[in-house]
Amino acid sequence: LGSTWVHGTQGKINQLFKEAKSKAPCVLCFDEFDAFAPDRASLSHSANLSGEVNEFLSQLNNIGNEKIFIIATTNNPEGIDPAVLRSGRIEHKFYIPAPDFEARKAVIKLATLNRPCAEGIDFDHLAKLTEGYVTSDLSLIVNDAAMNAAYARKFITQSMIEEAISNYRPSVSKEVINEHEEIRKR
């Protein structure tokens, strides 16, 4: 949606929503939404960025009535302009925490599904070893083990996955997870 031209981004935002309306019902997903709609109070007089946020606000007004469903994701919810999060715009907020034991176990099982695996993989043990890892970390670990197995022309084994775990640290620190928990509480 970015443009090098003054007001070009506003035009692209407008065009995106026009297209969505012509194809309704539809879903628009904005990843890292804080970059699209930053808090205007922190923009230090950037008229262009304020105009872009204003365009989003205008387009988001009661967009559900147009049969357009908006999903906006972020790791920085406090960086989003508060006006975007009002009713009639993006009104429901969901906190998705780092996966717990059962979720990690399920993610690892899902990541190994339809892949050539040796018998006896202990998913409980792997879930214990990956406390603090997020879903993308778990996928990376299984992909790494799968690549090593493929190069060796072997099935994926417990030890291959454990070795992959030892090669990667959680990509999200405990401090960041604690910060997100504090935001959730507020």
Keywords for this structure?
single chain, 186 residues, mainly alpha, two-stranded parallel ribbon, 7 helices
Overview of the structural elements:
The chain has 186 residues and is mainly alpha-helical. The chain has helices spanning 8-22, 47-60, 101-112, 123-129, 135-152, 158-167, 174-185; strands at residues 26-30, 68-72. It is elongated. The two termini are 31 Å apart. The mean pLDDT is 89.
Produce the secondary structure layout.
Layout lengths: L7 H15 L3 E5 L16 H14 L7 E5 L28 H12 L10 H7 L5 H18 L5 H10 L6 H12 L1
Parallel strand pairs: 1-2
Helix pairs in contact: 1-2, 3-4, 3-5, 5-6
Shape: elongated
- Spatial extent as radius of gyration: 21 Å
Q: How is the biggest beta sheet arranged?
A: 2 strands, parallel
- Uncertain runs with pLDDT below 50, 5 residues or more? none
**Element string (H = helix, E = strand):** HEHEHHHHH
Taking strands numbered 1, 2, ... along the chain, how are they ordered across the largest sheet? 1-2
Query: Approximately what portion of the residues adopt beta-strand conformation?
Result: 5-15%
What is the tally of helical segments? 7
Find the count of extended strands (DSSP E, 2+ residues). 2
Give average pLDDT, whole number.
Answer: 89
Q: Tell me the structural class.
A: mainly alpha
Helix content: 40-55%
State the end-to-end CA separation. Answer: 31 Å
Short characterization:
This protein is mainly alpha-helical.
